[in-house]
Please model this.
Amino acid sequence: MIHPTNEEINYLIRTYNDNFTKNISEKNIVTSFAGLRVLPACNTSSFERSRESIIYQDTIHPEIISLIGGKLTAYRASSEQIMQRLVNALPKKKKLIDTRFLAIPSNN
Model:
């Protein structure tokens, strides 16, 4: 099972405390998660790998999609591409919001 390491948790707590006035500690953590970003194989340094996304849609089960590579900062664009592929494999529903215009809330 993938989970954040103690070093990652401590790094995030330090970073938060360096940037916000109310300090937190491990006792403030309610839950946590971690994930993997799979990058395509290459014969060069990981810093030289392409950061392009590869989207694979299963031909037998089109509701199953794998996203390989990409960047966290491009999550909206990647999500939009995935939803365009999924639209015919999912039940029809009314669109509630266009996330392209959804602002990320500030912590002020």
Observations:
- The helical segments are 6-19, 75-86.
- The longest strand covers residues 53-57.
- The chain is about 25% helix and 10% strand.
- The radius of gyration is 18 Å.
